[in-house]
């Protein structure tokens, strides 16, 4: 099955997940991320701003702020490319490309070499750390020349047995679902 066929399959599975399951899974996944030594010891975290159907990252971001960590979030700069900017509150966000909340222009850029830990979204992933995104390549391009620890978050019911991957795809260091946490 190619990536586009897999995306269709996962989106179909996603559409029938109950709100109760999603709420339970998201809470458990966030708690697992917050318990990670890699999160606890990080000074600068990179985390996506969740959209509808994605795992709700607000508890991760809010806990990072409470712990006085720097929070860097993505901003699309051109097709297929993104950069990270520090936010201090949700007031630092505005609607960006594709309706995704992005940092306002007043926010300061965060260089990749300063990031300690990242929470990465997916439509699905496998237990080997390969992720299936939406197909824009934003995360793969950004992560290509980085070496910070990455944790991909996925609801267990959307986990795949195997994700086909290409040479430009970057394998994640940690896979986190509500049921498992796997270090690679």
Describe the protein.
The relative contact order is 0.19. The protein has five helices and eleven strands. It has helices at residues 3-15, 19-35, 37-40, 58-66, 138-143, and strands at residues 44-47, 70-78, 81-87, 93-95, 101-103, 117-120, 124-125, 131-132, 149-153, 174-176, 181-183. The protein is an alpha/beta fold. It has a seven-stranded mixed beta sheet with strand order 3-2-1-6-9-10-11. Strands 4-5 form a two-stranded antiparallel sheet. A two-stranded antiparallel sheet has the order 7-8. The chain starts with a helix and ends with a strand. The protein has a single domain (3-183), classed as 3-Layer(aba) Sandwich (Rossmann fold). β2 and β3 form a beta hairpin.
Helix and strand topology:
Layout (H helix, E strand, L loop, with lengths): L2 H13 L3 H17 L1 H4 L3 E4 L10 H9 L3 E9 L2 E7 L5 E3 L5 E3 L13 E4 L3 E2 L5 E2 L5 H6 L5 E5 L20 E3 L4 E3 L1
Parallel strand pairs: 1-2, 1-6, 6-9, 9-10
Antiparallel strand pairs: 2-3, 4-5, 7-8, 10-11
A few lines on this structure:
By secondary structure, this protein is of the alpha/beta class. It is 27% helix and 24% strand.
CATH architecture: 3-Layer(aba) Sandwich
- Low-confidence stretches are none
The number of distinct β-strands equals 11
Shape: globular
* Number of helical elements: 5
Main sheet properties:
7 strands, mixed
Output the structural class: alpha/beta
Count of separate structural domains: 1
N-to-C CA distance: 24 Å
CATH third-tier fold name: Rossmann fold
Helix percentage range: 25-40%
Strand order of the largest sheet: 3-2-1-6-9-10-11
Which range does the strand content fall in? 15-25%
User: Quick one: CATH class?
Assistant: Alpha Beta
Query: What is the alpha-carbon Rg in Å?
Result: 15 Å
Mean pLDDT: 96
Topology pattern, helix = H, strand = E = HHHEHEEEEEEEHEEE
CATH superfamily: NagB/RpiA/CoA transferase-like
